Every structure is written in structure tokens, then in C-alpha cells.
Amino acid sequence: MEKKYCIKINDTKVEVSEEIFTEYMRAQWREENQDRRNKKRNCSLEAMNEQGKEITSVSFIEDKINDIFLYYVA
């Protein structure tokens, strides 16, 4: 049994080849993957505190970044 591929155009399903379906969906798949990766990279203070990484202020983060930057520059 051959698999059928359909895309929706103006609320109408249109049967297409696998190649056309893949190209049509590529942008949507890319956006979904990007959204999923961005959720994994959530670095808000609240999220870090929930993970047990207690950070009390933004100045703490700025100090850490400066320390790292100075280490690699020196």
C-alpha cells in the first residue's frame, strides 16, 4: 500500500508527492524544532532557581561573565 501525502490549501486537502510534501512542511518542522530547542535553553532567573542554582541578582551573572571573559582574553 502506497502512502498518501496531503497538504491543506485554502481549507482543501490536496494530494501531493512525497517530495512536494517534504518541501512544503520543511519550514514548519524547522520552526517547531527551533521552538523546542529554545524551551530547553530557558535561562531565566526563575528557571535557574527551580533547578537549584540559586542566583540572587543580575549583577552576579554579570560578574561571572566578566570573570570568564577576562580568563579567555588574558
What's the layout of helices and strands?
Elements: E1 5-9, E2 12-16, H1 18-40, H2 45-50, H3 58-73
Antiparallel strand pairs: 1-2
Main attributes of the structure:
74 residues; alpha+beta; 61% helix; elongated
Structure description:
By secondary structure, this protein is an alpha+beta fold. The protein contains three helices and two strands, in the order E-E-H-H-H. A two-stranded antiparallel ribbon has the order 1-2. The longest helix is centred in the middle third of the chain and has 23 residues, at 18-40. It is elongated. The mean pLDDT is 79.
| Main beta-sheet annotation | 2 strands, antiparallel
- Low-confidence runs: none
Sheet-strand content, in percent, reads: 5-15%
Order of helices and strands: EEHHH
Summarize the structure.
With 74 residues, the chain is α+β, with helices and mostly antiparallel strands.
